[in-house]
């Protein structure tokens, strides 16, 4: 359609008709939209009274509603069964049964799924289910639409597993006799085949022999190849049900006959069933019956339809190992050569020519050949077991090389998945596939890389522990291209749009400290992880890189390198200009708390984390609040009591100064959580401090006792002089007043010196209500030493779990006592001087 331009329009006759055609095209485009709209009458018909209950509404919609409304009720049947099973069975289910007779395909498919859901949820007993639902399932089993019939069949097969034997026998098995007759429809006979395969595991062998096997033989000889194929695929289930003896006498002859059937699909089904039943046949049956059939099948496979080759290549590993004990050396070599031929099917040889000089292959043939080579890659570990891993390099390495370098991605993808199994089987010879590992790591397809990375740590560990190099350094130093391949793989994943592959790769690279040296990780991988955290835009990728970086740091024993990385984390992430980087710093700190010791985190990251309480971005402060409980759990008392004070101060500032409502709500919630936490106690450090405190208090008590003794002597001498010179009444009054003054000064000195200078302005908080609320909520926080501020006093709180830990240091308390004693002694000296002056005046 030509674009409509209205700036310069030519209204000549020829152009006018062009514009009209464009407008007509626009009208056609809009027409479906108009048709999808509902008219007022249609809306009226779709409207239902809101006051109706769920059961009443379901009955109403099934009775008089439209098809889409009825389908909605059927889809909602499991919910109704959970809410009110009795009423649903009494009123709703009969209506559904009526509607299904004339229902369309959509409602039929919905009903089959709903019935299966009711069974799986066990909303009613199995007896009630079989009484209410089973007949509806059986009635709709032979629906004219094949999709609907298959849906009801899947539901019935699931029901058979749960039904009791007698119900299955009377309701399902007995009607099969008539439905499996040749006079019945093709669909009915196909359904009978699948039901017989299912019921074979429900009954004893003699019942199956008497009631099921005659029908099985009849259906195996049906005139329609679809029925023979379907019945042939059910013979495996029947054989498992009847046991080895009946399988040998009844099932095996039928399989031999079906393997020679004129229909290729029947022969294919017979071959696959034989392979799956190899464990049920004895050595004579395998050598005399199964092996000739398999050889004939393999010889004819290249001449017949390529679809047989696809199936043969898929089952070849199981087949070779199942018949391993009866192979002669010649047969063993023949099957190995057959596998090699399939592994390169459709590929040109090194000389540039095709094996059989075939002409250009069709696209369908190429697809089948790719499927064959993919199946060969899938069976490669099984073929290694077949030839013995010791012979890998001689017999299979060339095929392994070809499959790893196959031009088609599905083949290399399957090889990448199988790589770990191959490495395990090679054991000490795993060094022989080093180059192929590098090749797959450098594969141009990210699908191949994703498949290989799934077991990359295990593969690298096998190579490191069992490789040729047994020196003290990394055992992977013998592979010069491995580290470049790992870095190239990561960079290719980083530049793609498949961030999940990149995330998975970074997670798996966390294994490298066990594989390569610390210097190699530091120079080739660690800084790359930091770059990803700083520059990548995908959050899961950034978190994966952060965790892997923390693991690299954990295993790095060089202090200079450690300090450099820690400094970069703090400066570039924690103090970064982008708030996104600061958020990632908190994620990284969370990983550090998980992987490192508590003391390591407290030493390097505790204070940088608390600095983010002043962050200008609310999201950063909010994330920090969520992290604070984990941060507090790293503390130990009394070793980290100064950090605990910093944590409490930061929380107080958040409560007082936070303006964002969401952040403030989280802060209050975090305070309650912190209040319930218990801080771990360092018993050894606590005992040392207790001993030091007791020593100091002993010294202080001795000094105080000596002072009091001297003061008491001086006061006794003074009292004698006073009694001689001053009347008793006046001296007693003045002494009492002076003593009260001394007590007042002493109490003022205690109150002024007790408050630490750092917290002297805590009551100047602009939001007094917040501060008061925090005080009440955290006064007993963590059952450890917490500060509680009020307008009049400063108090310390402690509980039994935190011992004698307190925020007042022993030195401050010692200064406090000394100041009080000095003021006491000063008051007493001034008092004696004043009284002596008064005595002299009275004498004069």
From TrEMBL:
UniProt keyword Phosphoprotein present: yes
Gene Ontology MF, one: protein phosphatase regulator activity
UniProt keyword list: Coiled coil, Cytoplasm, Phosphoprotein, Repeat
HEAT repeat residue numbers: 212-249, 251-289
Ranges of biased composition (kind: Polar residues): 722-734, 767-777
A GO CC annotation given for this chain: protein serine/threonine phosphatase complex
Composition bias type Basic residues, residue spans: 835-844
Principal subcellular localisation of the protein: cytoplasm
UniProt superkingdom: Eukaryota
Positions of region (Disordered): 685-751, 758-777, 816-844
Subcellular location: Cytoplasm
Subunit-structure text: Serine/threonine-protein phosphatase 4 (PP4) occurs in different assemblies of the catalytic and one or more regulatory subunits. Component of the PP4 complex PPP4C-PPP4R4.
Name of the featured protein: Serine/threonine-protein phosphatase 4 regulatory subunit 4
Lineage per the UniProt record: Eukaryota, Metazoa, Chordata, Craniata, Vertebrata
